[in-house]
Amino acid sequence: MNQQYPSVLLEKAVGEFAKLPGIGRKTAMRLVLHLLRQDAQTVEAFAGAIVTLKREVKYCKVCHNISDTDVCRICSNPARDASTICVVENIRDVMAVENTQQFKGLYHVLGGVISPMDGIGPSDLQIDSLVERVKGGSVKEVILALSSTMEGDTTNFYIFRKLSGLDVKLTVIARGISIGDELEYTDEVTLGRSIVNRIAFTGTM
Amino acid sequence: MNQQYPSVLLEKAVGEFAKLPGIGRKTAMRLVLHLLRQDAQTVEAFAGAIVTLKREVKYCKVCHNISDTDVCRICSNPARDASTICVVENIRDVMAVENTQQFKGLYHVLGGVISPMDGIGPSDLQIDSLVERVKGGSVKEVILALSSTMEGDTTNFYIFRKLSGLDVKLTVIARGISIGDELEYTDEVTLGRSIVNRIAFTGTM
């Protein structure tokens, strides 16, 4: 299909869109032709938003979450419980936990998990700054909310060792069958952990 | 989910992506965070490609296809048959026909079809310039390749009336069951037309 593009400029724009994850050349073409039908101002607003984001975005000095200011809205919010830190892998995980509206503490964004296969070691992650925060003394609990993968478990264990000896409670989010899941379709490892980590039934879930 | 975005800049970029057809807020977020992980140069190349396209793209003076030059590659190609013009709705249709590698003539891009419901009348389309091209005298056949919809049929009929009296053969692309389609799942109108417009079987398809 490539050589039949009527325009080099079109080809370039489609090529750029097609680099995005989950966007093939057909979808890229559809998106580009959609933008081409908009007026110049709309197209420049689109392009400008992403360039400005990349150029001006900051990361919170405290938790490394994305932010418009040096310290993010969550870390600087006096209504949040500064004694509890939830450790997550990335910005999307912060948003996922925020959306549950179940957590009122602060976050710590690692920027990934330990993954020797991908060449990511502890020094590539924000683990030292987490230890510093805990050493600050006001932190009572660190909740590990990483992915339930081998890399996530490795990272959990590394953080556990780094924080051992410090006066802080270390917890891990519960793993188990998802709300609404049927038992027979749950994988055996998850189901096994669910049984081992069963909790007292109090009449409500 | 809206108010929980950690950054106004992020919110803006996601909002712009979410305006694209078929892109919801979750996908928009995924795309923006992907771009955010790229280096500044990559992000600017992405944004630049679409702005440059919008700013510098030309439309062929002859056929109104997208082009980098005043007259497009197809119209200026001496190897193409200038006596046959295929009338299509938009740029994507040109590419679709080109991809079949079955057509060696030129195109004429209308820029849409007559659709009173959407406020598109004949004067909004490149119909007059088609008539001028045919009046030029070197065109022997005009192939109507519009969508098989009421609007497409209306436009076909309008062009038919405009070209009547001129010395040009007017044809319509065949409608029928698609290659590989099973008869029982074909809608009755298509199947009916297929039967009425049957062609002599010569041993090959």
Automatic annotation (TrEMBL), chains A, B:
Any Pfam family: RecR_HhH
Biological source species: Phocaeicola faecium
Chain ranges of the Toprim domain: 83-178
Residue stretches in coiled coil: none
The gene coding this protein: recR
Family matches, as InterPro entries: DNA_Rcmb_RecR (IPR000093), Rcmb_RecR (IPR023627), Rcmb_RecR_Znf (IPR015967), TOPRIM_dom (IPR006171), TOPRIM_RecR (IPR034137)
Assigned keywords, A-Z: DNA damage, DNA recombination, DNA repair, Metal-binding, Zinc, Zinc-finger
Function statement: May play a role in DNA repair. It seems to be involved in an RecBC-independent recombinational process of DNA repair. It may act with RecF and RecO.
Family stated for the protein in its record: Belongs to the RecR family.
PANTHER family: RECOMBINATION PROTEIN RECR
Signal peptide limits: none
Superkingdom of this protein's organism: Bacteria
Protein name, as recorded: Recombination protein RecR
Family matches, as PROSITE patterns: RECR, TOPRIM
Residue ranges covered by zinc fingers (C4-type): 60-75
